[in-house]
Amino acid sequence: MTATTHTTEEINVHALAKVVDDAAKNANAIEQLSEQGYALSLTQAYQVQDQSLVNRLARGEKQVGIKMGFTSRAKMIQMGVDDMIWGPLTDDMFIEEGGETSWEKYVHPRVEPEIAFLLKKPLSGNVTLAEAMAAVEAIAPALEIIDSRYDNFKFSLEDVVADNCSSSGFTIGAWQSNIGDLSEGIRNLGMVMEFDGQAVEIGSSAGILGNPWRSLAAAARVAGEAGKVLPAGSIVLAGASTAAQALKPGVHVRLNCEKLGVAEFTVSKGA
Ligand code: OOG
Ligand code: MG
Q1: Would the CB of 69 count as within 6 Å of ligand 1?
Q2: Cβ-based burial of 209 (10 A; exposed 0-12, middle 13-18, buried ≥19)
Q3: Distance of alpha carbon 194 from the chain centroid
């Protein structure tokens, strides 16, 4: 159903933020904004994302970091887009490592293997890889749950940005602050994601922009471009190193990351 076409001049950021935020809150799939006739520019898509974060913060959520998306070829190919994206992570999205997440919270969730950075210094703007590294307190293996609020998990780049980049949940394994030579130490780590003990995705941290540190530098850059700072204490998810896999009720998901260790959670059995 393509209704009226809304030009970029007519976009109501507040109204669209409520649409995507309600869909997320109620675990309800909606039609892509672009299919509903909203021709959002990328700038407007980030405004919708920002406004829906404002709504969530007003409900008591706290921002704890940001996620980078489409930092690997595997993900760009899986989803048919070719630009890096980013969005906020809040405390509400956090799943205790080894814990359980409720199947009912999601529309059609998928999971993907990632690497997380914990900042000890603020980062913003153009930084060298060495400067990005100097701002990091610790690194951990991580799993991100993505759950597009759009029908059939289909979207344009603007649609997915407006929808908080599909981000829905994340879990983080034990933080490692002593992983030897930080600069080389995480460049090319084997990453195996398992469902109930069976490998479902096998990749390498090198899949993340050829070197996950580049994703952290990119996070600083995009934050700076948006006039924001990633404060000390922030978590930065570097993006998936492999394609995502559809979750199912009751499944136990585990990421084994060379040198960094394990991150895992279980999905509840559902109704
Ligand atoms: C968008 C989110 C992409 C990643 O790690 O590349 C992302 C999606 O695939 O729905 O989180
Ligand atoms: Mg991701």
Answers
A1: yes
A2: buried
A3: 19
CA 245 to ligand 2 center in whole angstroms: 11
Which residues, 6 or more positions from 143, have their beta carbon under 8 angstroms from its beta carbon? 111, 112, 113, 114, 170, 171, 193, 253, 255, 263, 264, 265
Which candidate, 270, 48, 12, places its Cα nearest to that of 156?
48
Which ligand is closest in space to the CA of residue 70?
Answer: 1
Q: What is the mean pLDDT of residues 58-82?
A: 95
56, 92 Cβ separation under 8 angstroms: yes
Q: What share of the chain is helix, strand, coil (3-state, %, to 5)?
A: 30, 30, 40
Q: Which ligand is nearest to the CA of 143?
A: 2
Ligand 1: nearest atom to the Cα of 79: 9
CA–CA separation, 153 vs 118, rounded Å? Answer: 30
Q: Which among 49, 14, 85 is positioned nearest to 164, based on CA atoms?
A: 49
Partners of 150 in the beta sheet? 30
Helix (H, G, I), strand (E, B) or coil at 160: helix
**Closest of 119, 141, 126 to residue 217, by C-alpha:** 126
Tokens for 220?
A: 């600083």
- pLDDT for 129-182, tens place per residue? 999 999 999 999 999 999 999 999 999 999 999 999 999 999 999 999 876 666
Single-letter amino acid, residue 212: P
Mutate to test the pocket of ligand 1, among 159, 166, 167 (most ligand atoms within 8 A of CB): 166
Question: Which ligand has the minimum distance to the alpha carbon of residue 69?
Answer: 1
Contact 241, 203 (CB under 8 A): yes
Atom 3, ligand 1: which residue's CA is nearest? 69
